[in-house]
Design goal:
11 helices; Cobalt-precorrin-4 Transmethylase, domain 1; Methyltransferase, Cobalt-precorrin-4 Transmethylase, Domain 2; 253 residues; alpha/beta; five-stranded mixed β-sheet; 8 strands; 16% strand
Length: 253
């Protein structure tokens, strides 16, 4: 009701998609001037909106979720604040919060990572940089990249607990809870918006030297490269890569 009242009272609505917002306004019986404000138009429309804000109130509306959270809006909000314009949030559904709450993973601390990089090399590098994060992690992923992203998560982070949430708060909401390996096979028809909630790094006891050596022997037998074998063994054992690599060299003697 507050959102409806706000949209009815403002002088202008900046919408990510005027067609979608137009349907929403029609359902609520609201007739209001709109302007398109999205990823493609945000730079060109910013001066105009700042000018409008000198005399009228403007409502910022995204297609779904909260404007500014991996949606257009950050630049406008930042510029409005810098120009002394009051910014008032109208809370609504957020896939980030709802996914974390429904995931079954720890909620007392979590970190939001946005979207994963599109290119594999950059994605793997990014995942390696956060693999040691102890807090629950939440991120967005596009449907056509879900499978490859999950496979990279499995390779870099191991078979952790995960919640893969589809279409949060929408009609076809669906949540998979389990291990990363299971999530890869679970989704057959991949459509909609995905939010991934990943278990943080669990502190493990360091494996015995003999156990690590056994794992390295097995990986070598499987034809795994030295780089990947050392990375996996270090991850699973809690030992440093330097120490594991020395063990790898010793086994070759």
């Amino acid at each position: 009701m507050r959102a409806m009242r706000t949209m009815n009272d403002v002088g202008l609505i900046a919408a990510e998609d005027t067609r979608r917002t137009g349907r929403l306004l029609s359902m609520c019986g609201i007739t209001k001037e709109m302007i398109s404000y999205n990823e493609q138009t945000k730079r060109s429309k910013l001066p105009y909106l700042l000018k409008q804000l000198e005399t009228i109130d403007v409502a910022l509306v995204s297609d779904a979720g909260t404007p500014g959270m991996s949606d257009p809006g950050y630049e406008l909000i930042k510029a409005a604040i810098e120009n002394g314009v009051e910014v008032v949030p109208i809370p609504g559904p957020s896939a980030i919060i709802t996914a974390v709450v429904v995931s079954g993973l720890p909620t007392h601390e979590f970190t939001y990572l946005g979207y994963l990089p599109r290119m594999k090399a950059q994605r793997v590098k990014f995942l390696e940089s956060v693999a040691g994060e102890p807090r629950t992690m939440v991120l967005f992923e596009a449907p056509h990249r879900l499978k490859v992203a999950l496979k990279d998560i499995l390779t870099v982070m191991g078979d952790r607990r995960v919640a893969v949430c589809r279409e949060m708060t929408k009609l076809y909401e669906e949540v998979y809870r389990g291990k990363v390996s299971g999530a890869i096979d679970y989704f057959e028809e991949i459509r909609g918006e995905f939010t991934l909630v990943i278990e943080g790094k669990v502190k493990e006891e360091v494996k015995s030297t003999s156990a690590v050596e056994d794992e390295l022997r097995r990986l070598r037998k499987e034809g795994v490269s030295a780089k990947d074998a050392v990375a996996r063994a270090a991850r699973s054992s809690g030992m440093s890569k330097k120490a594991v690599y020395q063990m790898w060299l010793d086994l070759k003697k």
